[in-house]
Amino acid sequence: MIIVNTDFITGKELETLGMVKGSVIQAKHVGKDIMSGLKGLVGGELTAYSEMMNEARAKATKRMVEEAQTMGADGVINVRYTSAAVMQGAAEILVYGTAVRFR
């Protein structure tokens, strides 16, 4: 499966199948949330949140790819990510794009 953020795949003629998406809402353990709050006072990277967002992006992308595969897609173009805070310490990641089949 080819995943790109452009509206084309070089050297391929594409047939559009439709929009696909994947999403996840993920939270960190409350203990890590407290430690990150303390880290926020002194500055620096909040690694627990970086890890949480990386895990969430990977899960959301996997779900999008699975949806594209059920449509018989060879790739997903115009891929975009968005995030939103759902509550303290939790975030939603949404990834979406256009499923395509090679001609």
Automatic annotation (TrEMBL):
Gene3D superfamilies: Hypothetical protein apc22750. Chain B (3.30.110.70). InterPro entries: UPF0145_dom_sf, UPF0145_YbjQ-like. PANTHER family: UPF0145 PROTEIN SCO3412, UPF0145 PROTEIN YBJQ. Belongs to the UPF0145 family. HAMAP family: UPF0145 (MF_00338). This is UPF0145 protein SAMN06296020_107101.
